[in-house]
Amino acid sequence: MNVPRRPPRSAWRSPWRSPLRGPWLTSVFGLVLLCGLPLLFLTGLLSYAAYNPDLSPVNDKTPAKGLLGFYLFSWPTHPYWLYRVNQGVHVTLGIVLVPVLLAKLWSVIPKLFALPPVRSLGHALDRLSLLLLVGGALFEFLTGLLNVQLDYVFPGSFYPLHFYGAWVFFGAFLAHVALRLPRMLRALRSLDLRAELRTPTSRTRPEPRDDSGLVATAPAAPTMSRRGALGMVGLGSLTLLVVTAGQSIGGPWRRTAVLAPRGRNPGTGPDGFQINKTAASVHLDDRDLGAAWRLTVAAGDRHVTLTLGELQAMTQYRSALPIACVEGWSTQDQAWEGVRLRDLARLVGHATDPPGVFVQSVQRSGSFRAVALRANQVRDPRALLALRVNGAPLSLDHGYPARVIVPNAPGVMNTKWVGRLTFGATDFGSPA
């Protein structure tokens, strides 16, 4: 009597029995991430540079960055849509890659729980890089998604956590690519993509066994083809693109952004466009912004105090500029009207080549109630202290009585409820 041989104990206990797992499928997901993650990292670095963190401590949310800020440069004002496009790509791409990242983690999960956990020094280093890669990816995607959804729950500021986490993750990513790229290329050549896309579930077979540890030793019967797995991940990414990208594209596409908090209809009329921070949320009311409001313009020992009426009596200019936020949402171009920043600099002695300016809001608490702007931002003729938008006075939530609007600047750098402009002094600490 022949008794069937029992599978090896390790295979018999293994819960990882999917016949789809293998180096080829893992490499397909890896190839998509290899293309997408560097772009995600690059747009993130550019987003950080847009805050001009090396200009003033008040702009810098990561003061201990050291050499990690080696690439910083003076953020330009041309083209005026650059930050809007950059941040839209960064946020939308990060969301779209979520199904691919999860699929990649699913495909390699047997490696994450392989025993023994460490077999040699080289294996220990490989496991450490894998831990930093997986942990860093989950941390970056999770903090980014929570910030986009305006439900940030991590202790500490989003900016330093996301910035430093990005460098840790990308360092581990580069090490992983250096170690695994040759194997990935061999795996991609092991199966024909077009053939796999034509293979139904009934003819799906496990990949050939190798030393990768990804192929199941006792595979279960397939319930899905590799074509189905790739299609499911692709459909997930496409769905996320459709329900998210509208917050950055704007126009009629904004109504499709059902998963983006700033994709909802913000209302109609001149002030019917998105905001993040309301006057009530920062405890401002008519006592701060009513008839008693004054704007102080200063440079050195020169000071000029202006009422709203005096600002309105100055020459008014128009600029068509969007508001674009770090969360990925942006508006269409809005028609702003107000006084040029360089004209205000002229009032305090800077008739030509005005310097940078330190902008302070009457807001007493919260982040970004003061920012420093570079000289190139002040000198741009489109940079305004705006008093009106789309033909009407600013609403309270859009910064009444006066707000800054600068081309190609993050939304938080366009300070609302401005109370003071100090030209020629940008090296200020954080406001008290």
TrEMBL record:
The keyword Transmembrane belongs to this UniProt entry's keyword annotation: yes
Show the Pfam families listed in the entry: Oxidored_molyb
Q: Does the keyword Membrane apply?
A: yes
Give me the segments passing through the membrane: 24-51, 89-109, 130-149, 161-179
Q: Where is this region: Disordered?
A: 199-218
* Coiled-coil regions listed in the entry: none
Q: Which SUPFAM superfamilies match?
A: Oxidoreductase molybdopterin-binding domain
Concerning CDD domains, the annotation shows: SO_family_Moco (cd00321)
Keyword set for this entry? Membrane, Transmembrane, Transmembrane helix
| InterPro entries, per the entry | OxRdtase_Mopterin-bd_dom, OxRdtase_Mopterin-bd_sf
Cite the Oxidoreductase molybdopterin-binding domain residue spans from the record: 291-427
Name used for this protein in its record: Oxidoreductase molybdopterin binding domain-containing protein
- What species is this protein from? Actinacidiphila rubida
